[in-house]
Model the fold of this input.
Amino acid sequence: QDTKQQWFKEAKFGLFIHWGLYALLAGEYNGKKTDRIAEWIMNDLDIPAEEYEKLAAQFNPVEFDADGIVRKAKEWGMKYIVFTSKHHEGFAMWDSKCSDYNVVKATPYGRDIVRQFREACDRHGMKLGFYYSQAQDWHDPDGYMHRKDNSGKNYRAYLERKCFPQLRELLTEYGEVALIWFDTPMGTTREESQEMVDLVKRLQPNCIVSGRIGNGLGEYMTTGDNFIPRLPYEGDWEVPATLNDTWGFNKDDHNWKDAEEIIHLLVKINSRGGNYLLNIGPEASGHVPEESIKILDEVGKYVNENEEA
Ligand code: JFZ
Done:
């Protein structure tokens, strides 16, 4: 009987947080707007790494309040938080020892975001998991890129130089990690995915591995945005979803779903046994868009009124 995953089976509702340097661009670079999800702007507008990395010098989220966000998540009835420790852009939101391209060493802000979430989650008894882009890394010369030529790359070198050591840091220096939310495995082989799983399990046997580790090695299924599987589905699953049409903050995306629609989806997903992992994309200042707070406040009210005693 697998008990380590029991909390996940019962969680129902979680908070996804997409936050990185892309929040500074907020969907626009040099007068050009992206027509896709904002955290993909580097890839989609072909911004060279030498240009994109300059953003770090502007990152100073003085309004960031980890405690405020975790308190809200709790109020909304959420049972876990998944934070983008490193998205495809390759920038680490913690004090990484193996890459200076991180929030402590490369920004005027100089403070560890992951640690602040860790401490806030501990204060409020909230589970914390880390999104980690294992294969796509648009900053490392040997990390995979999307729809670009990856043939000259030494993926193995990237794995050993950055991916494995960074996972080790996250799993040894930041307390109890509820899950690692791997994503877009791309060319990762079964052996390589297995190495990642082994690394996670060796360091934290109770840490759950997401479906997007790839190669069938995940411990639960992650569906596409808002896709709800038909019953019966064997095993645990989760629907990651946005409140508008982007994960990372986009100043021009005002296509917010209303609370009623979110509640409907939550009930539908939960009744089929899945978890709903709903996203917020903080602005570069750290401020969480008012619209998302407003929607989630309403959803939270419903959740609290319907929670069994
Ligand atoms: C991935 C990321 O590329 C994206 O930026 C975001 O972090 C999202 C949560 O995950 O995008 C995906 C990956 C897989 C699917 C959909 C979006 N899928 O399988 O449907």
